[in-house]
Write a structure and sequence with these properties.
heterodimer; A: about 400 residues; alpha/beta; Aspartate Aminotransferase, domain 1; 2 domains; seven-stranded mixed β-sheet; 12 helices; about 15% strand; B: about 130 residues; alpha+beta; Sufe protein. Chain: A; three-stranded antiparallel β-sheet; 5 helices; about 20% strand; globular
């Protein structure tokens, strides 16, 4: 039952830091420990590291200038800064915020919080693939709408949203578009200028940089209020001495991501499609969650009728495979994933979901191993389940 | 997350399956919540002679079903009715707090199966009278 080497397919939850990133970070934890706000040579060395990182992150997303990148502690802070920052700044203009039913909790909850402070929120529905309904966006958008906040690509089902179209609609009514590109960071090409994005959240760890670093892209001319007040760092938008080594690592990760994105994306897409085929084609009542092609290269989300996700995870782990699930039983709330429910799945279908997210380290051999393993696991759990129809027994 | 005993019962569930002509059947839970359990019993001389289960749910749901059937087998109906959720959890060396409620329903399914058996028998007695 036990396999010596662990097969990790839960990279969306956390990624190892690229060795080249670690190497770039080390000097900033040792010799160049200065405060970038200080004018001493020690401080200026740190500032140089910070500036270079800003340039690399700006290049990754094709920002018009490096000053448009505001460093934060990570994607959750960036989402909060964008949403509350716009709301607090634009209150006089309106109180309506449009978002969708497939957002991450770090967007869901700031928006929910604002509704307790006099703002109004509208949640756009999605189709069965998780793609946002553009007609609803057009209908809901009005002069009172101060912000539209939409995920670039969903972290659970991998679906990539039509950001260019969304941007066109949002700007036709002169509203502001914030895009949460956390899961997409470093995985797929993102050009903020071409797409017409006003604010965008980017994450370091999602591109093999250290945790505790992230950024908010703020287009020139877009005004937001800070969340954290203090010494006026990051153009006054995010005070506090910068996490220099973390940000330098983030910069290096962005540089590597830009250089290797094509090769990395192509390789992961092949592994992803091989895994999706293997996990759905040879097993009856197996389905793909999310869009088949408009999809992040790393994301595989499937569901099996009549069985439950956590028991699949345990069975996989018994065989040395680490994955995750959209099942209630793996969450703190005991509710199945709101993203899966938003795509129209029934509760019992969402409970039967299994998510495998690939990383740089995964191989075709590992993919083949999981494909070989899964039919037996599904068959065993279906034999135990009272919901399994007669024709599947035996 | 789980104790070795829970994992052992998850890997090798005892008394898994159906009884085609049961004396009593109890089902609790709901697939919407992610847990559904059915327990089938055969009763002989007021004792549980045979017991089987079927469960849709997480690892804890499967392990508690398995353990409940182990605890109930051979017991008198009165003894079986005294088996509680807490007994089942304790016999598995404990469950994570979040699993104590929703995934620990098998004792209820057992009680429902006994109730079902008694109701059927009362009807039989009444018919015989």
């Amino acid at each position: 039952m036990t396999k010596q080497k662990l097969v990790k397919m839960d990279y969306a939850a956390g990624k190892p830091v690229d060795p080249r990133v670690i190497e770039a970070m080390l000097p900033f934890m040792q010799d160049m420990f200065g405060n970038p706000s200080s004018i001493s040579s020690l401080g200026q060395g740190a500032k140089k590291g910070l500036d270079e990182a800003r340039k690399k992150v700006a290049e990754l997303i094709n920002a018009e200038r490096q000053e448009s990148v505001i460093f934060t502690s990570g994607a959750t802070e960036s989402n909060n800064l964008a949403i509350k920052g716009v709301a607090n700044r634009s209150r006089d203009r309106g109180t309506k915020i449009i978002t969708s039913t497939v957002e991450h909790m770090s967007v869901v909850n700031p928006v929910k919080y604002l509704t307790t402070k006099g703002f109004e929120s509208v949640l756009l529905p999605v189709d069965k693939y998780g793609i946002i309904d553009l007609n609803s966006l057009e209908n809901e958008l009005d002069e009172k709408t101060i912000l539209v906040t939409i995920v670039f690509a969903n972290n659970e089902i991998g679906t990539i949203e039509p950001i260019k179209e969304i941007s066109r609609i949002v700007h036709s009514k002169n509203s502001i578009l914030h895009v949460d590109a956390t899961a997409a960071s470093g995985q797929i090409p993102i050009d903020v200028k071409e797409l017409g994005i006003d604010l965008m959240t980017i994450s370091s760890n999602d591109m093999y940089g250290p945790k505790g670093a992230g950024a908010l892209y703020v287009k020139e001319g877009v005004r937001i209020e800070p969340l954290i007040h203090g010494g006026g760092q990051e153009k006054g938008i995010r005070s506090g001495t910068e996490n220099v080594s973390g940000i330098v690592g983030f910069g290096k990760a962005a540089e590597v991501a830009k250089q290797e994105m094509k090769e990395y994306g192509d390789r992961l897409t092949r592994l992803r499609d091989s895994l999706i085929r293997g996990l759905t084609e040879s097993i009856p009542y197996a389905f793909l969650n999310g869009h088949p092609t408009e999809r992040l290269p790393d994301n595989v989300s499937v569901r099996y009728s009549f069985i439950e996700g956590e028991s699949m995870l345990l069975s996989l782990e018994m065989n040395g495979v680490i994955a995750s699930s959209g099942s209630a039983c793996t969450s703190k709330t005991l509710e199945p994933s709101h993203v899966l429910l938003a795509t129209g799945l029934k509760h019992e279908e969402a409970h039967g979901s299994l998510m495998l997210t690939l990383g740089k380290q995964n191989t075709q051999e590992e993919v083949d191993y999981v494909i070989e393993l899964m039919p037996g696991i599904v068959k065993r759990l279906r034999a135990i389940s009272p919901l399994t129809p007669k024709e599947l027994k035996g | 997350m789980y104790t070795d005993k829970v994992m052992e019962h998850f890997k090798n569930p005892r008394n898994m399956g159906e009884i085609t002509d049961p004396d009593g059947v109890g089902t609790v839970g709901n697939p919407v919540c992610g847990d559904l359990m059915t327990i089938y019993i055969k009763v002989k001389d007021n004792r549980i002679a045979e017991i089987k289960f079927k469960t849709f749910g997480c690892g804890a749901a499967i392990a508690t079903s398995s353990m409940t059937t182990e605890l109930a087998k051979g017991k008198t109906l009165e003894e079986a009715l005294n088996i509680t959720r807490a007994d089942v959890a304790a016999s598995l060396d404990g469950l994570p707090p979040v699993k104590m409620h929703c995934s620990n329903l098998a004792a209820d399914a057992l009680h429902a199966a006994i109730k079902d058996y008694r109701e059927k028998n009362e009807t039989k007695h009444e018919v015989n009278k």
